[in-house]
Amino acid sequence: MVEGDRMATAAAHRTAHADGAAQEDTSAFQAAFDAAVAAEERIEPRDWMPDAYRATLVRQIAQHAHSEIIGMQPEANWITRAPSLRRKAILMAKVQDEAGHGLYLYSAAETLGTGRDELLDKLHTGRQKYSSIFNYPTLTWADVGAIGWLVDGAAITNQVPLCRCSYGPYARAMVRICKEESFHQRQGYELLLSLSRGTAEQHAMAQDAVDRWWWPSLMMFGPPDDESAHSAQSMAWKIKRHSNDELRQRFVDICVPQAESLGLTLPDPALVWNEERGHHDFGPIDWTEFHDVLKGNGPCNDQRIARRRQAHDEGAWVREAAAAHAAKHGNAGTGATHA
Ligand SMILES: [Fe+2]
Ligand SMILES: [Fe+2]
User: Fold this and answer.
1) Which of 104, 122, 107, 112 is nearest to 55 (CA)?
2) Distance, CA 180 to ligand 2 centroid (Å)?
3) d(CA 44, ligand 2 centre) in Å
4) Which Pfam families match (predicted)?
């Protein structure tokens, strides 16, 4: 359907509500929505959409936004201890990129009618989640490399298909985010390569970081397909394009040759090429650990949220100043209070 048509039908739908005749009309709008999704058209903020589609997007985009800004913490931990000016400049740029990703995503969620203040409140009070990977500590400098290579690498594998997500603002945010994530992945790889080719101690440090980050990175793709609560509906809506297990397999297949080039091993004795499947087989994932970290029992859950709340409180004066500025210039209510 042409975008103008969908906007016209959305307007008609609102009228229908006012007339009390919403029941029949909703099915017509549902049909138009289904046809647009089937035709690979983008759903835009002013189009009619099912309530559950909107709620699913808000939940997913919020969780994604929260992950971006919480993900700043484990790496920012190393900015003051970066081993050279070059490494420090790269790491600062990367951490700032993650803040930017959070901003694009909170803005995408706002197009669905949910404000950033509400989402942040849900994050701070534990009612919305962020990726569990960020509840692990960054113990050595090599962790910055392992996060870039594996965590940003897994994020790219997850997010490239989201560039074709049926919801326009989310899909468009993903295009830019993926370009920046590619830079993050490369810098992590290059950092690990330097360490791997360095002294015996540096090589051991790189190997230790990969040993600790490998399994949590595989868990980033979420539970196995048969236990994934939201997958089927999200795929029908074309929010999600591939299943968790498919993406996880793709990631493993990408990482194996890269680990070889790095001169590092992946900590899985069961990892082997399967000629018949055309993929690597890999060992079982410890889902007990995954669920435990998800429940809040990871090594850094409390620390991450406490730091986030502190940063939010310390930024109150910025929000107040932005609101005062907006009021002075007659722009109150345009979203400036969320700055
Ligand atoms: Fe990011
Ligand atoms: Fe990143």
Assistant:
1) 112
2) 7
3) 26
4) PaaA_PaaC
**Length, in residues, of the chain:** 339
How far is Cα 253 from Cα 73, in angstroms, rounded to an integer? 29
* Interval 151-170: pLDDT, tens: 999 999 999 999 999 999 99
The confidence score (pLDDT) of residue 294 equals 86
Nearest to 22 by CA among 44, 58, 48, 54: 48
**Whole-number Å distance between alpha carbons of 94 and 118:** 27
| Residue 129 burial (C-beta neighbours within 10 Å; 0-12, 13-18, 19+) | middle
Distance 72 CA to ligand 2 centre (A): 9
Beta bridge partners of 280: 273
Whole-number Å distance, alpha carbon 123 to ligand 2 midpoint, is 20
The set of residues, in sequence order, having a beta carbon less than 8 Å from that of 191 and lying 6+ positions away, is: 87, 142, 144, 145, 148, 149
Which residues sit opposite 167 in a β-bridge?
A: 43
**Distance of CA 180 from the midpoint of ligand 1 (Å):** 7
- At 123, list the tokens: 């994050």
User: Do residues 262 and 194 make contact, with C-beta atoms less than 8 angstroms apart?
Assistant: no
> What is the DSSP secondary structure assignment for residue 280, as one 8-state letter?
E
CA dist., res. 139 & res. 339, Å (int): 33
DSSP lists the bridge partners of residue 273 as: 280
Measured from the alpha carbon of residue 154, the closest ligand is: 2
Tell me how far CA of residue 73 lies from CA of 77, 99, 137, 158, 253, in angstroms: 6, 11, 10, 21, 29
In this prediction the pTM is 0.88
